[in-house]
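Hello,

Our lab assistant flagged a job as stuck in the queue for most of the afternoon. It eventually completed. Since we weren't sure the result was trustworthy after the delay, we are filing this so someone can double-check. Below is the sequence as submitted and the structure that was eventually returned. Let us know if re-running is recommended.
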Amino acid sequence: MKGSTTRTGLYFELLGSLKFPQSVPKIFNYIKSKIMRPLPYNPCSRFSPIQMSLSMVNRCNLRCAYCDDAQDGTFDTAPKKEFTLEKIKQIFQSPLGKNAIYVNLAGGGEPLLCKDIVQIVEYLTSHGHLVLLTTNGLLLPKFIERLTKARLTKISISIYPTNIDFLRENLAALNKIHKIQNSHVITRSELEKTPEELAELVDFVYKAGSTRLRLWNCRPFGKRRDNSESFTSELPAFQDFYNKISKKYKSFVDWQGLYTASDTNINAKKICRELWQLVPIDGGGYVSTCCGSQVNLRSDVNAFTNSPEEIFNHPAIVALREKFIEPDADLPDMCKYCNLLEDPPM
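-- returned structure --
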């Protein structure tokens, strides 16, 4: 089962946010990334990353029990790991990020704790980038009008047990200022024990005026990976829930990352654009593998000191690309649980 929200609709939604002529080189770079044959070593001169995912801060105003970043109850608060406007300029004036059409200002923590967040959005949108903010929403009432004025493209609020009460009080009002999409990670326990509460959550988000709700399968990752809350599309409780929700809400709900094998998606097709199109970076310049994995394969390069070629075509990334290109190569172990396999976001 694939997401019911069509990509064509998403593209039209984003088209109105492009800024001309600043976005033109980014559009050409995007088109080249889609039509050119994937190569293990991809020179930035051929096409450069079309997405940058930035972990804005390493602090959060929530302490979710399942968050791998804070399972000991603390976050590393070293300021050097947080983005500033000057760091943003350094990355996006470089060939590495200059032609990225899409920039996700994400976590590692809560991005609205970044002191330069409004100025960063203004800078990126004025240079023709589409900018998505992924947030828990608790600080949005303070920032949403300024972010809207700064031409922020999209706001995605993740729904957790720790922010649901806040959202019940504020989501409808926030949607009147800037349309919001929501996401929620569903677990096997929810489907089997409290499906009516999950259905009520979908109904609440729909009535609050959000543009869509993305429902993700609980993906096991991190040091203490536990598969017990994951499920496959064959789970009877999921099938019942899917049939009920998809019939009532149609394209409003976007279904993500449903495993097709008994305990992994190892039978999925080897299709992944992430290794060519995305570069995730934190405020210290640390570059990770892709947004679907916490395996740190680029730990010896830094966005502020290494060249774009050294980062984009790191040997470990090139080796992974080879596995996806070679028809007879097995799916890499680190990719078997990825809920973006076969379904890249752009």
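-- support follow-up --
The delay was a queue issue, not a problem with the job. The result is valid. Confidence is low (pLDDT under 50) at residues 1-5, 260-267. The CA atoms of residues 11 and 197 lie 32 Å apart.
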